């Protein structure tokens, strides 16, 4: 599938989804077999995506798309709540949750992200290290949670809840994978999300972020690790001495 990355409201009526200003990039997955370019002057380009939850899926895996602002490299991403609705607008409640990437131990297990309690949360494996201080692009999806809906369902709405404004364990980008079995599709749906509540609506035309509270705040997505950064700084400072 192809995905247009658009930042203008002209297409919202055709898609049938509301347009909300201030919510960051709006991602629309299409059913075209090849990437489709956005009209001139709109968006940065095209991204290939093969996940539209509205097409029907049993499993949805939510993986981190970037790092967190917490300065400790043993810190993990925390996800407080996931809620799903079907194509009739009815809440999907018969859910189970698991993780293939590990959790933070007792009190931070995947089931806590679907328990209806915003005070509890799933925490990823602390050993991976989600801090922006040690972030590398290879850590995308290094912490993830998989929701099993019991059977294939068409998902029309997703609500994600993190810790709120200023939360140091929140990511600002997420990657949604669709799957009907054990293997994930190659091209997940990447979305900007809020530190608090993010509403995502999907239909046959694709998915769009339709609400963020609070507004989007970017954390980090640099591929340069702290070790690489220190190396570059040392070369800048010591370079002239080494050459003399």
UniProtKB/TrEMBL annotation:
Residues 96-180 form the F5/8 type C domain. Pfam families: F5_F8_type_C. It comes from the Eukaryota. Gene3D superfamilies: Galactose-binding domain-like (2.60.120.260). This is F5/8 type C domain-containing protein. It comes from Cladocopium goreaui.
């Amino acid at each position: 599938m192809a995905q247009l990355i658009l930042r203008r409201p002209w297409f919202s009526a055709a898609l049938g989804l509301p347009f909300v200003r201030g919510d960051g990039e709006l991602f629309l997955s299409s059913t075209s077999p090849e990437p489709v370019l956005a009209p001139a002057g709109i968006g940065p380009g095209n991204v290939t995506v093969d996940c539209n939850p509205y097409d029907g899926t049993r499993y949805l895996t939510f993986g981190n798309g970037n790092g967190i602002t917490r300065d400790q490299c043993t810190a993990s991403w925390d996800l407080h709540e996931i809620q799903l609705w079907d194509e009739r607008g009815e809440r999907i409640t018969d859910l189970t949750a698991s993780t293939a990437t590990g959790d933070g131990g007792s009190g931070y297990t995947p089931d806590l992200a679907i328990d209806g309690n915003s005070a509890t949360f799933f925490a990823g494996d602390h050993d991976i290290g989600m801090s922006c201080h040690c972030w590398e692009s290879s850590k995308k999806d290094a912490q993830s949670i998989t929701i099993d809906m019991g059977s294939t369902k068409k998902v029309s709405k997703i609500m994600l809840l993190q810790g709120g404004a200023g939360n140091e364990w929140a990511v600002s980008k997420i990657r949604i994978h669709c799957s009907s079995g054990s293997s994930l599709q190659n091209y997940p749906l990447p979305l900007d999300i809020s530190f608090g509540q993010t509403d995502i609506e999907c239909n046959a035309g694709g998915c769009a972020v339709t609400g963020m509270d609070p507004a989007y705040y970017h954390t980090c997505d640099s591929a340069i690790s702290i070790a690489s950064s220190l190396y570059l700084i040392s070369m800048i400072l010591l370079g002239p001495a080494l050459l003399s």
